[in-house]
Amino acid sequence: MWLAIIGLVSVSVIIGPFISLKTLKRNDIYGQYIIDRKKIPGMQSNWQYDHFRFEITKENEFIFYQTEKDKIVKVYKGKIKFLEGYVEPRLVIQIDSPRHHIINDKPTLYRNIWTFYYVFKSPKFGNVFFTKGRWKPINPEKKYVKSIHLPPKLPHLSTLIKSTYVATRTYVPI
């Protein structure tokens, strides 16, 4: 009995650090962020990945990039501050007008055991998920629009109707 209790306590002490949430510090927040394509995979998240990313610098600058893959099209700059009184660093973005529709004043921080991500609420896209990371090309050959495979040429509709009528008009001897 005692052996089982001691074994259970020692296993929980060993496993504890691996299953407990990481406590975030301000230094963990600084860095580059990209669209998290794993949250809602598909063509829309791939498109967002190639068009939006941001950076939070140690000088408390917020820099949002509107891009065309590796080419920066437009830059939105602002400042960030951290709200005091919270266990985790709570981010507030102060940006001048004009601002992109994705940028929120207070994005929501979500955490997993090993990672964290921000969710920005966009009036056009809904929830937009950003995770820490560097942008890399997805696949240069891949297109956003799927190719449409048309069926082989169909016969004229009247021919199709006549052949169907003839095929269904069978006489069974009585």
Task: Write a concise synopsis of the structure shown.
The chain is an alpha+beta fold and about 170 residues long.
Radius of gyration equals: 28 Å
Structural class: alpha+beta
What sequence of helices (H) and strands (E) makes up the elements?
HHEHEEEEEEEH
- Name the overall outline: globular
What would CATH call the architecture?
Beta Barrel
Strand tally, please?
Answer: 8
What low-confidence regions span 5 or more consecutive residues with pLDDT below 50?
160-172
Number of helices: 4
CATH class bucket? Mainly Beta
- Biggest sheet record: 8 strands, antiparallel
Blueprint (SSEs and pairs):
Layout: H1 2-19, H2 26-29, E1 31-35, H3 43-51, E2 52-56, E3 61-68, E4 71-83, E5 90-95, E6 108-111, E7 116-122, E8 126-132, H4 157-168
What does this structure look like?
The protein has 174 residues and is α+β, with helices and mostly antiparallel strands. It has one domain: Lipocalin (Beta Barrel), CATH 2.40.128. 25% of the residues lie in helices and 32% in strands. The chain has helices spanning 2-19, 26-29, 43-51, 157-168; strands at 31-35, 52-56, 61-68, 71-83, 90-95, 108-111, 116-122, 126-132. The protein has an eight-stranded antiparallel β-sheet. The protein is globular and about 65 Å long.
